[in-house]
Amino acid sequence: MLKPMKKNKVLAIAANAFLMVWSGSLMAAGPLDSSMNIEKEMDKAAVSTQKTVDKLVDQTSDMAQTYQLTLQSIDSLKAYNASIEGFIRRQQAEMASIQAQMDGIDGTERAVIPMMEDMIETLDQFVHLDVPFLMNERENRINFLQEMMLRVDVSNSEKYRKILEAYQVENDYGSSVESYEEKITSNGQEKTVDFLRFGRIALVYQSRDEETRAYWDNTSRSWVAIGDEYRRPIRDGIKMARGQANLDLIHLPIQTAKPAR
User: Fold this and answer.
1) Total domains in the fold of the chain
2) SS (H, E, C) the chain
3) What is the pLDDT of residues 202-219, one digit of tens each?
4) Is residue 252 a part of any domain in this protein?
């Protein structure tokens, strides 16, 4: 017959059994927890690696896009440079053409200036050999042209234009009728008379009191007195020239050309 164990001994056995079971449980749980921890660490590493890969992919995409834009920019710059080079070549050709024209203009101007001076001299001689009407006005015009030729602030083209204008004025005198007042010296006395000009065909004057009158003889280069028979015709001609009477035929002394021998 078994003897009952003492209470303390039973407790010791129970405690030993619990420790054995608990220790076995710890021994069994250790490998599983370690495996789970490793898996968690691997998951974390995979997530971090994926983020790094995604970041690298994004950077690579950005770099590829930047590279593509850079290639497009290079192509645009090449096309622009080619266009600029063509423009520069055209400009250089145009500059060369302009320079050649300027060189030609310099030579032309060297020839034009003496020609213009000759034109003024010829005009001056013509005026002093012509019928002596409006002499102050015509001589002043020639003096202006001569002074203009010495001015550097007037272009040669403008000088030439003024000379042509003076020639045109002289040409217009030949087809116009005019009456004007002017002072003359007769018998040592100065007096104002009325002049009447029909182109370059006839130039006459009559005093204000209509007591004296004369016509210009260009052959003798002198004034020739005429009689009372021309008093009224000259008076009527002056009125017609001034627009004070209707145009009509009048009788005036005209010097005819002498026949050639």
Assistant:
1) 1
2) CCCCCCHHHHHHHHHHHHHHHHHHHHHHHHHHHHHHHHHHHHHHHHHHHHHHHHHHHHHHHHHHHHHHHHHHHHHHHHHHHHHHHHHHHHHHHHHHHHHHHHHHHHHHHHHHHHHHHHHHHHHHHHHHHCCCCCHHHHHHHHHHHHHHCCCCCCCHHHHHHHHHHHHHHHHHHCCCEEEEEEEEEECCEEEEEEEEEECCCEEEEEECCCCCEEEEECCCCEEEECCHHHHHHHHHHHHHHCCCCCCCCCCCCCCCCCCCC
3) 999 999 999 999 999 999
4) yes
Question: What whole-number distance in Å separates Cα of residue 258 and Cα of residue 142?
Answer: 31
In a domain, 225, yes or no: yes
- Domain residue limits at 226: 178-256
Residue 196: which of 233, 222, 169 has the closest Cα?
Answer: 233
Q: Which residue has the tokens 């019928």?
A: 131
The list of the chain residues with pLDDT below 70 reads: 1-35, 102-107, 255-261
Sequence letter at residue 168? Q
Cβ-proximal residues to 225 (8 Å cutoff; 6+ apart), any chain: 212, 213, 214
Using a cut of 0.85, tell me whether the model's pTM lies above it: no
**Short-list 119, 111, 202, CA closest to 167:** 119
d(CA 208, CA 137): 22
